[in-house]
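Q: Fold this one first, please.
A: Sequence and structure below.
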Amino acid sequence: MFKSIEYKLIIYILLLIISVIAASFFFFGKYIVYGCICVLVALFFLYKLYKHYNKFNQNILFLLNALENGDYSFHFSETKLSRREKEMNMMLNRIKDILSKTRNEIIENEKFLSVIVESVSTGIIILDEKNNIVLANKATSDLMGLHVFTHLNQLAVIDESYPDLFRKLDINDRKQIKTANDREEIQISLQASKIKLKKGIIRIITLHNIGNELEAKEIESWIRLIRVMTHEIMNSIAPITSLSEILLFSQKDKNPENISMIEALETINSTARGLISFVESYRKFTGIPKPQMYIFELRPLLDQVVCLASNTIKEKDIDVNITGNDILLHADKEQITQGLVNL
């Protein structure tokens, strides 16, 4: 009963009042010794009252200090206490549990994001306000050809201008750099972004390998150029072929004895035809052939495929059973056969 906060406060206040009244009574009665004793008793109860009041402030202060230092191992007692003290400690323990759970969730999210950052093929560099590297993922080290990348000055091994380039890279800037490894030269596109956090401004630099994109665009440009060139060659050679044939026939009819002229025209004609044949062959090689569609039975096609792939079937010990005879397809039989065999 007397462990309750309210009862303790009431008792201490009553005893303090009684002590003050007794001290006043003794001082007025000129009993100085007893008055001093009552003053000391009053001071003692005043101290107990202050200590009792300050006890809960100390618990809260201890909680805040422990959380600030990252210590979540403490636990306030919830037994052998008054009801109010027990409720207070339960509330403090609950606050600690909530904050501990939130902290664990944040740690899990950081690990999850760290795995994602390490898994992507895009290089990511995070710099603080003093251009110190906070984080650099594995893709960055692979793209820059560095086994360990912890400081921008390491980029001077690749090019002396790269450290200053990375330091001065701003949000609206888009730069391209080149790095080389044992196999090839890599084209890298740089792009920066900023974010303001409580600890300061963080700058994020992303590195993209654009070599494949440039190669694809280059190949596409070459294909377009060659198509234009083949078209122009065909337009230029066709009249030469036609005119050489006309002149060849006219020379044979009018002057069959002019052998040198006939041979020259035959040479021109054969050369032009060879060039046309070459251009047509290139068109067939680079273009997608038009499928030859017709209706045929599926069973003979499957038998043919099994026959062509019989060695592979025997090596891999595969059992093949074909059933059904009335299935018809409308497709290019040769292309289907070639595709199935390649599989």
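Q: Good. Now the second chain.
A: Here it is, same layout.
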Amino acid sequence: MNPDKEDPNNHVPAVSPDDDWDGLDVDQVFDSQLPPLRSDAPRIPKMDVNLSAFKTIYLDRHAGEAASIPEDVNHKSLASSHVNVERPLIEKESFQVALVVEGLKQVDVSAQGYERPLPRRRLSSGERHDWGAIPKGSTRWMLYAALGVIGMIALIMILSHFSGKKSDMKLNNNGLGQVERVKEKSEPIRDSGVLVELMNGHREAIQIYGRYAQAKSENDFLKSIYLSEQNAPLVKDGWKSVGAKSGWMPSDKASWQSHRDGEILYAELKGVNHNFSKFLAFFRYENSDLKLDWKATTGYGTASFDKLKIGEGDGSEIRGWISPSDFFTQQLPDNKYHSYIFRSTSKDASVWVYAEIGSQVDRNISALFSTSLITGEYQTEAGVILNLERGNQAILPRQWMIKNLTAANWLDLATP
């Protein structure tokens, strides 16, 4: 290592010849900066007390006389020795052990049982038990409450399903009122076997609708429709091919639901056609054979909605979906009429229909949208058959007056 070589990392300044290090007095530096040695520092003077030079003062408690004190003893040393020596002697002499141990009794610790402190939780439970406030198991009460709710829901569903009551509405002068249930005698089904057969007719209904969708002419399915002889002229005039290929059948997953309207039993088959369009087919029993209700399935009407929109056509038997509306005109104000929108079965066209407030037809239609007293449910639209008429010529072409609510379903009104 070369000591003469400059180090760029060395920041210590170089020593110059002018620096006078040889004349430095090291002893002077230490003497001026460091504190003095401990051995040389001044100390507190010691007190030399010669206890043998005097006699300890002894107070005679009985005679009250003091012992003689030599004259050459300092009074301050005497007082100091009196404080430091005489007091412990007096306290030691006056201490009596009998007074300390008096009243103590010997206790046999081994005879006592060792009791562990109870946890806080146990003490709290014991206190609740003493006050009679021990909580019972919440799981049991939750189970009882759940069973009660389930039972109530099941009872409501049973009552709503088998209830044969119909609703009616009382209206005041302003057209507002409360819903009242009109009790009607429910007649039992004459043949309970028909209901069982209808519930089990899912597979047969799929086959019937499959043949109807594949038909190339009305003769291919005419015998499988409800009241075929009576409806044959209507079928020839209004039938349109579904267009399904030969061998096509609806899916087995198509829903099948049975319904009852008074004494009439019918079922609905809901599914998807070959072109992915939805279908709704109605089935009824004619004698002992399951038949397709062609009028209900096709939404047959005495006039098409294209005719109704321009104020033309025969409105005596029109099937469609009805729901409340708020479209009023000067000729049909809201203080005299209730407004409804009436859509076709495929819901691709619509007209407005009106019922005079307080009339029988208005009460019948209003009852369709009333709230059920049992379940609290209500519907916003209903599939009905209406008897329409034009009424006043001053109304708009798409406005029709409701002459009668023919049926609250789309079923064929004719009976075998």
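Q: Anything worth noting on the second one?
A: The chain has eleven helices and eleven strands.
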